[in-house]
Design brief:
Helices cover 54% and strands 7% of the residues. It is mainly alpha-helical. The radius of gyration is 21 Å and the shape is globular. The structure holds tryptophanyl-5'AMP.
């Protein structure tokens, strides 16, 4: 029996190169070794304001992007979170075993709530518990994510260990996190001290997977670099470091190898070559996403099958949790 690997993206906007290099690309590389579940977390997306039509479109597009990136829908379970009600059901139980203190410490909650003014949706606060439910529901062993999700994984493990202590060690599998050695934190092209983010209001800060080659090349050529002109791998040059990281994540090369190719060259060379590399890499993914988006019947078929499979698997764990916490069996 293969171990279970699971991960997800929130379809709150178009996916970025950060999502691709920090998450998707590693799902693809690891998928053969695991029993995989990948889904679009539409219920997470509504923790911030969403246009309903856009959310529907981006939810399909997220799943199309998984397939276009190389996820095999015949081997992996692909689905949409809201199609599997057990996520919300388990989430409620876990909410009763998570504390206000630990949820208040989540960096992402602090960052996102700071942008909400006086009216912070309670969902933004509780959302890491729904993420814990996503993971624990399937007896997940490995969760491949970018650096920014590490804290949520630690919380998931803490809640699981707490409940295992109360209700039996066999209740939840304690999941491990997989953070890729390079590409775990791709930075904004406009402010390389900040993470590249789908929700950044400046469209030049991120490469979206739907961007044309021209757009990609323009954005990377305009990327903010640093003072000086020598291409080196250093925390003092976060803009240059980001471009080198992108190259490493795309090619599998080590930073020293990339840097040695730029001896005697200027930042301009690094920008142009990175831009061309990203554009060439993403062009077939973009074309395949567009093809799949035009074939709604196929996509919805994959999602229907995936949701059925996920519901069956999830119910077994949910039954066990309901029993252990003392709910009467459903007759
Ligand atoms: P989300 O949608 O913000 O991001 C999806 C994945 O992309 C990674 N990522 C990045 N990696 C490198 N550089 C970046 N700039 C960058 N930006 C994003 C994220 O780390 C993540 O792996 N809560 C999650 C989705 C989620 C989930 C889950 C993930 C819900 N349930 C269960 C794993 C397991 C989120 O909002 O990710």
């Amino acid at each position: 029996m293969k171990k279970v690997m699971l991960s997800a993206v929130a379809p709150s906007n178009r996916l970025t190169l950060g999502n691709y290099l920090g998450a998707l690309k590693n799902w693809v590389n690891l998928q053969k070794q695991y029993d995989c579940l990948f889904f679009a977390v539409d219920m997470h997306a509504i923790t911030v304001k969403q246009d309903p039509e856009e959310l529907r479109r981006e939810t399909r597009r997220a799943v199309a992007t998984y397939i276009a990136s190389g996820i095999d829908p015949k081997e992996c379970t692909l689905f949409v979170q809201s199609h599997v009600p057990q996520h919300a059901e388990l989430s409620w139980v876990l909410t009763c075993f998570a504390t206000m203190g630990e949820l208040g410490r989540m960096t992402q909650y602090k960052d996102k709530s700071a942008k909400q003014g006086a009216h912070i949706p309670a969902g933004l606060f509780a959302y890491p518990v729904l993420m814990a439910a996503d993971i624990l529901l399937y007896g997940t062993h490995l969760v491949p994510v970018g650096e920014d999700q590490k804290q949520h994984l630690e919380l998931t493990r803490d809640i699981a260990e707490r409940m295992n202590g109360l209700f039996g060690d066999d209740l939840f599998v304690i999941p491990e996190v997989y953070i890729p050695p390079v590409g775990a934190r791709i930075m904004s092209l406009q402010d390389p001290t900040q993470k590249m983010s789908k929700s950044d209001p400046d469209p030049n800060s991120a490469i979206y997977l739907g961007d044309t080659s021209d757009q990609i090349i323009k954005k990377i050529k305009r990327a903010v670099t640093d003072s000086g002109s020598e291409v080196t791998w250093s925390d003092e040059k976060p803009g240059v470091k980001n471009l080198i990281t992108i190259q490493c994540a795309l090619t599998g090369k080590k930073p020293e190898e990339v840097v040695s190719g730029y001896a005697g060259k200027m930042y301009g060379h690094l920008k142009v070559e990175t831009a061309e590399m990203v554009a060439a890499h993403l062009a077939p993914v973009r074309a395949e996403v567009e093809r799949l988006m035009a074939d709604t019947a196929y996509l919805d078929g994959v999602l229907k099958m995936g949701a059925q499979n996920a519901r069956n698997r999830a119910q077994k764990l949910l039954d066990r949790v309901y029993d252990r916490v003392g709910f009467l069996p459903r007759s």
